[in-house]
Design a protein that fits this description.
The chain is an alpha+beta fold. It is built from 4 helices and 12 strands; from the N terminus they run βααβββαβββββββαβ.
């Protein structure tokens, strides 16, 4: 059985679209002083090692704006990336892709309404009605520890996180027939 990390191609590829969140269209990472900030909320969640999005994040995320530079006429099924740092906002997935996940891995994710989409090149809103944030919450300790390189990282405040090195081997017995999960040690989505 083969296992794959859910990643996208390089940002140079035309079908790869990333996004940045802001309070207003095209405003970058400038946040009004008293407004809720996803950067602070996701960082706090990561420090607590919480995989499920907090009620605060679920309530506030749809009020933001996803600024992007699409180079295609039709948006892809995935905008953003399934990153291992849970301190980053989750990707935005189309309803078509969510339907596929529902068939292959029911109950594996948390869905949150999408924000407004803004094309920073054309300076106009893009229809976001088909998209939602998708956060993978199905968690398994899935790496074969004796064959994988997992590096322990310690932040200045003493909190710990783990990052994958060059060698990655999945423990097939731990995973079983699971189709989609987040590793409970490294937070890598597979």
């Amino acid at each position: 059985m083969g296992f794959y990390k859910l990643t996208l191609g390089s940002t140079d590829e035309k079908m790869t679209i990333g996004y940045t969140l802001s309070a207003l269209p095209h405003s970058g990472h400038v946040w009004p002083k008293d407004d809720w900030s996803p950067l602070l909320a996701f960082t706090a969640q990561a420090l607590e090692n919480q995989i499920s999005l907090s009620d605060e994040i679920v309530a506030n995320l749809p009020t933001t704006v996803a600024n992007m530079r699409p180079s295609t006429l039709i948006l892809p099924d995935v905008i953003g990336a399934f990153g291992y740092p849970i301190s980053a906002p989750p990707p935005l997935l189309s309803s078509r892709f969510r339907t596929l996940i529902d068939r292959l891995a029911p109950g594996s994710y948390q869905s949150v309404l999408a924000p407004r989409f803004w094309d920073v090149v054309k300076d106009e809103e893009i229809d976001a009605s088909d998209y939602a944030f998708v956060n993978i919450v199905n968690s398994i300790d899935s790496w074969n520890k004796s064959k994988s390189e997992i590096n322990k990282m310690v932040r200045k405040d003493g909190t710990v996180w783990h990052a994958l090195g060059r060698h990655e081997v999945v423990n097939a017995q731990a995973v079983g027939d699971t189709n989609l999960w987040r590793d409970s040690v490294t937070n890598t989505v597979l």
